[in-house]
Specification:
Distance between the termini: 91 Å
Radius of gyration: 31 Å
Strand content: under 5%
Largest sheet: none
Low-confidence stretches: none
Structural class: mainly alpha
Length: 155
């Protein structure tokens, strides 16, 4: 037979919050300890079993522990997802060949800028034209001239 015990959540929280925050700081670090305790207490106070709790302090300690474990699992899953996605999309940059770097120095400053924006920044001709304050057709003409010059130098 369950006995109904009345534990006012505001009173219980006020009585145990400081020690629960210290406990949460040990479990999950000081940065999110307050939030961890708040989340755990909200869930504990809303649980149907709260009305039958004999030892509210022990119950809240357990709730904070469970919330810390849940947060750690969620964080680990999120990190694993981010690593999977980052690993799939990541392309390791190739070491620039010395002859390619030397050939870039045969271009004009404008041509080098256009080549950089086109190949290293994946910018469109329209975006490059806006950034450099020149006509889009000029960007295309300078890029063609740069490609021709690079082909000559690199052969």
């Amino acid at each position: 037979m369950m006995v109904q015990v009345s534990h006012d959540p505001a009173t219980v929280y006020a009585e145990h919050a400081a020690e629960l925050v210290r406990y949460a700081a040990v479990l999950a670090g000081p940065a999110g300890a307050d939030d961890l305790v708040a989340d755990a207490c909200v869930k504990a106070f809303a649980a149907p079993s709260w009305a039958t709790v004999d030892n509210p302090r022990a119950y809240l300690y357990r709730a904070v522990l469970n919330e810390a474990r849940q947060a750690a699992r969620s964080g680990a899953r999120r990190t694993a997802r981010e690593r999977r996605v980052a690993g799939r999309d990541r392309v390791e940059p190739a070491e620039p060949r010395p002859d390619v770097l030397a050939s870039l120095h045969t271009l004009t400053d404008r041509q080098r800028a256009i080549v950089f924006f086109t190949y290293w920044q994946d910018r469109t001709s329209a975006e490059i034209a806006d950034d450099l304050g020149i006509d889009q057709r000029t960007v295309q003409r300078e890029l063609t001239a740069a490609r021709t010059r690079l082909a000559e130098v690199l052969q």
